[in-house]
Specification:
Oligomer: single chain
Strand content: under 5%
Number of helices: 1
Shape: elongated
Helix content: 55-70%
Length: 49
């Protein structure tokens, strides 16, 4: 069994990001922005763990 190269792993990760992330999360951007009162100049706090 051969192990994928770093270049192969990066290609798979990039394809995943390009295809799945927009499909799963793209639909939520407009809904979230519509649900919160954002105006020009307003700063949102950063999430902290």
């Amino acid at each position: 069994m051969t192990h994928p190269t770093l270049q192969d792993q990066i290609a798979v990760a990039t394809a995943n990001e390009d295809l799945h992330v927009p499909a799963l999360f793209g639909q939520w951007a407009e809904r979230v922005l519509d649900a919160i009162p954002i105006e020009r100049g307003i700063r949102l706090p950063l999430a902290r763990n």
